[in-house]
Amino acid sequence: RARVIGVIPDQIVTETLVCDVGATDGYIESSPARDILKIFVVERHHGSGQVGKGLIKGFGLQRGAIASTIAHDSHNIIVVGVRDADIIKAVTAVNKMGGGIAVVDDEHLLATLELPIAGLMSDQSLEVVSAHMGALVRAAHSLGVTLKDPIMTLSFMALPVIPSLKLTDLGLVDVARFEHVDLFLD
After folding, report:
1. Does 41 fall in a domain?
2. Which 3 state secondary structure label does DSSP give 6?
3. Does residue 85 fall inside a structural domain?
């Protein structure tokens, strides 16, 4: 049994869920059929190698991965995905861009937006950024995402001051208790 971040559509608050999860050879598996996906926050500012690991329900993603360096408030890399290979590809893509957003399926980039200014802002025109954002959202929806704005939703999953369960590079945070909690329950 594990703690799972429960997405509430069109909200930045989340629920704290407890779900049974599968594992193979000691490795957690995503379950798209149950809408339980892997989520990670990778520290990107100091080279610490710190990675927060969690599970999330409510994205609807059936395959692929979405990664972004817009992850309030620390703006580390946040990624949600089904397969580890796609998760790694998405994280690698935003890292190589020097910051940005990427949607990946079957280890292929479907859509990207480079954010070269601190991984948060573009140096492109509004029209160019808008076109890229539209492509990112369409790509996410093509992978089964049911949320209206999955990029915005993902960006708030790392904000540990908005209830209820969030993920930082240091792990899961129970916001009500303002303390780190284990992914797995005893």
Report:
1. yes
2. strand
3. yes
Distance between CA 50 and CA 161 in Å, rounded?
20
Find the largest Cα–Cα distance for the chain. 51
Both tokens of 38, joined, read 């892997």
DSSP string over 22-89: -EETTEE--BGGGTEEEEEEE--SS----EEEEEEES----SSEEEES--TTTT-EEEEESSHHHHHH
- Judged against a pLDDT cut of 90, whether residue 46 lies above it is answered with yes
Question: With contact defined as beta carbons under 8 Å apart, do 155 and 78 qualify?
Answer: yes
Domain hosting 41: range is 2-181
Residue 5's DSSP bridge partners are 16, 56
Element spanning 142, H or E? helix 126-142
Q: Is residue 134 part of a domain?
A: yes
Q: What is the count of structural domains for the chain?
A: 1
Give pTM, 2 decimals.
0.97
Residue 152 CA to residue 114 CA, distance in Å, equals 16
Q: Could you read off the pLDDT of 50-66 as tens digits, one per residue?
A: 999 999 999 999 999 99
Residue 156 lies in a domain: yes
**Nearest Cα to Cα of residue 36 among 46, 49, 21, 48:** 21
In whole angstroms, what is the distance from residue 111 CA to residue 103 CA? 5
> Which of the four pLDDT bands, split at 50, 70 and 90, describes residue 186?
confident
